[in-house]
Amino acid sequence: MRRAGIRAVAVAGILAVSFPAISGAVGDSTPSRQGGPDTTGASGPSGATAMTASAVYPGLGQLLNGTEYKAAIVCAVETFLVAGLVVEDRRARNSFRLYKQTSDERYYDEYSKHFDNRQTLVWWAAIAALYGLVDAYVDAHLVGFDDPAVPHVESSFGGDGAGGGEFRVGLAFRF
Fold first, then answer.
1. Is the pLDDT of residue 36 over 50?
2. CA 166, CA 163: separation in Å to the nearest integer?
3. Which residues, 6 or more positions from 169, have their beta carbon under 8 angstroms from its beta carbon?
4. Number of domains composing the chain
5. Residue 38: which pLDDT band, with cuts at 50, 70 and 90?
6. CA–CA distances in Å: residue 29 to residues 20, 24, 69
7. Is the dihedral of CA 69, 74, 79, 81 positive or negative?
8. Contact 61, 136 (CB under 8 A)
9. Is residue 159 part of a domain?
10. Where do runs of H (alpha helix) occur along the chain?
11. Phi/psi of residue 166, each to 5°?
12. Which domain holds residue 79?
């Protein structure tokens, strides 16, 4: 069990170190998120590719889509939740083992507490993983588009020189 943990940490470290290399390679082929729809013919990864990448390693789909900060956040949150889940699972198993050996109710209470914490973390980890998958899929379809629509306010004041004036205010959303 200890070797599996060491392997997991080693793989996570290698992938974390390779994030800048992957990001640099993707940054050259991924269209910019500025300036409207991509008209150069270049496109980012498909939604299925980004979602599969995010399922293989948390945050990889976001990284392929060119959102490095979001990739780091998704990876950190999912890693934190899974690590907490593993810790609570070990504590629950240990408390249950001690309860079986000693029949002390105190250990059963600890087991119940850690079991509940583990179950809560399972749900949070599942929600975070689902968010990562859906976000990678949606972002893959939005690569090359401007940032979210921002209202643009225009105003003008003019006159015809003969004492008549006009004041106009407009509000436009540009997509």
1. no
2. 10
3. 153, 154, 155
4. 1
5. very low
6. 15, 9, 18
7. positive
8. yes
9. no
10. 2-29, 47-56, 60-64, 68-102, 105-142
11. -140, 140
12. 2-148
Please say if the pLDDT value at position 141 is more than 80.
Answer: yes
DSSP three-state, residue 159: strand
> Residue 111: how many CA atoms within 13 Å on its side-chain side?
14
85-119: pLDDT as tens digits: 999 999 999 999 999 999 999 999 999 999 999 99
**Cβ atoms of residues 63 and 26 within 8 Å:** yes
Task: Report yes or no on 86 lying in a domain.
Answer: yes
Instruction: Name 158's bridge partners.
Output: 166
Measured CA to CA, the distance from residue 118 to residue 137 in angstroms comes to: 28
Q: Is residue 93 situated within a structural domain?
A: yes
* Residue 155 lies inside a defined structural domain of this protein: no
